[in-house]
Amino acid sequence: MGYLYELKGVVSAGKEARVYWGVSPKGDDLAVKIYLTATAEFRKSILKYIIGDPRFDKYVPKSTRKLMILWARKEFKNYKLLYSVGVSVPKPIVQRDNVVIMEFIGKSGRRAPLLKEVELSSDEYIAIFSGVLEDVRRAYREARLVHGDLSEYNIMVWKGRHYIIDVSQAVKTSHPHALALLVRDLRNLRRYFGEEVGIEVPSLEEMFHYVTGEELRPGLAVLP
Ligand SMILES: Nc1ncnc2c1ncn2[C@@H]1O[C@H](COP(=O)(O)OP(=O)(O)OP(=O)(O)O)[C@@H](O)[C@H]1O
Ligand SMILES: [Mg+2]
Question: Which of 86, 113, 157, 203 is deepest in the core (most CB within 10 A)?
């Protein structure tokens, strides 16, 4: 590829995607995310995030391989956009076919822990919570994107800093379900930081207003 010198161990083997530790020709660690074949169920679940996103729904491929390439392209585009407005995500490097290459978060092939896997002090949790919420706001306002699967499983913590990952499903704010997805993301953050970790968090209404500048009215954010 020119960007990748060597593919090393597997970092994560999910159902639909595998993440490998790779090394660049210069010797930098890379994360190499490869989308594999999709089940009919996965196909159905990802179509919701493709149809309705004006960037990707002009032509929705029938073949699974083409759909996975589109899914990788969508993730890379989302990473680029988020990175360009200063949201804390791994730096995207290149995408080709069903492969997305980005900055490796961690050291010597050992990935950084997920938020779910770390134990921090209250002050550290407070700092990460406000940083993540600020990123959700920046993503919404400056990238016009809603993550759509934000939780303690898709945030990594490295050197006191958070990194938001797994952005293939992120949609433009014009997507018909964007606000419902945003509310679900905010609920997840409140549940994790408020209920599980136990720090003080704002109300859902306050968080929604902080992110969008709008009032959260009933019926605005229903997922079908
Ligand atoms: N840039 C990165 N640097 C280091 N590790 C990463 C990076 N991106 C992803 N990972 C690791 O790979 C895992 C899976 O990545 P990601 O969440 O993007 O894929 P996924 O499609 O959700 O896969 P899964 O279903 O396994 O969660 C992450 O939980 C994380 O541990
Ligand atoms: Mg994930």
Answer: 157
Tens digits of residue pLDDT in 73-129: 999 999 999 999 999 999 999 999 999 999 999 999 999 999 999 999 999 999 999
How does pLDDT run across 188-201, given as a tens digit for each residue? 999 999 999 999 99
Give this prediction's pTM: 0.96
| β 155-158/106-107 pair status | unpaired
> At the topology level of CATH, where does 112-212 sit?
Transferase(Phosphotransferase); domain 1 (1.10.510)
Determine whether the shortest distance from the Cβ of 154 to ligand 1 is under 6 A.
Answer: yes
Handedness of CA 45, 118, 35, 178 (dihedral sign): positive
Q: Which residues are catalytic?
A: 149, 166
